[in-house]
Design a protein that fits this description.
InterPro entries: Redoxin (IPR013740), Thioredoxin-like_sf (IPR036249), Thioredoxin_domain (IPR013766), Thioredoxin_ResA/DsbE_sf (IPR050553). It comes from Nitrosomonas marina. This is Peroxiredoxin. One of its GO terms (molecular function) is oxidoreductase activity. The chain is of the alpha/beta class. The chain folds into two domains: 54 residues; 132 residues, Glutaredoxin (3-Layer(aba) Sandwich), CATH 3.40.30.10. The protein is built from five helices and seven strands; from the N terminus they run H-E-E-E-H-E-H-E-H-E-E-H. A five-stranded mixed beta sheet has the order 5-4-3-6-7, with helices on one face. It starts with a helix and ends with a helix.
């Protein structure tokens, strides 16, 4: 008897199944990539829209606290100073990179009227304390335990920074941290410090 043809038929069916599975997997992978691309495009478009809404507008009102939970004050009460408001968290790698730059800015420009406020968004202040003990901050640290300030400023990335002029108007918004952009930020800070209302 010839048993070779059923074996060949079984192998052919198995090969077809594998081919179909590979094709389906490739289609699913392609669809996932396409969906992720569309979602990220929407997020970046929304980020641009938010930035456009806040830029050249009065700084949103919100109350900050100290890390210990004591009242710090309202961001709008800082009129008269140029404010660099930086939202950060201990779990954010770009925040680690940004702190040396913020310390430099503080040392360079604090006597000219620049006030840097790092607004921590960690759920546990102990996490912020560990971060600060490790990386250090020569500038003011505040907290936003209710996340209301982050909501009012439409924070969607870490870190998110807002340069606010002496009249309380948001003049520049920066999301993330890239060392190649520090010169641009420094120039904007210098321009804002030169302007007297």
């Amino acid at each position: 008897m010839n048993y070779w043809w059923p074996v060949c038929l079984i192998r052919l069916i198995e090969n077809l199944k594998m081919s179909v599975v590979k094709t389906v997997t490739q289609v699913v992978d392609t669809m996932i990539i396409l969906i992720m691309t569309i979602l990220f495009s929407c997020v970046f478009m929304a980020t641009g829209a938010v930035a456009a809404q806040l830029a050249n507008e009065m700084s949103p009102s919100c109350e900050l606290t100290t890390l210990e939970g004591e009242p710090f004050g309202n961001v709008q009460a800082l009129k008269g100073e140029v404010v660099y408001l930086d939202f950060w968290a201990s779990w954010c790698p770009p925040c680690v990179e940004s702190f040396p730059f913020l310390n430099q800015l503080h040392h360079e420009f604090s006597e000219q009227g620049l006030r840097i406020i790092g607004v921590n968004l960690d759920e546990k202040t102990a996490d912020a304390d560990v971060f600060l003990n490790k990386y250090g901050a020569d500038f003011t640290i505040a907290a936003d335990p209710t996340r209301q300030c982050a909501k009012n400023f439409d924070v969607i990335a870490m870190p998110s920074s807002y340069l606010i002029d002496r009249e309380g108007i948001v003049r520049y918004i920066h999301r993330g941290f890239r060392s190649g952009e520090t010169d641009k930020i420094r120039i904007i800070v210098e321009q804002l410090l030169k302007h007297q209302p």
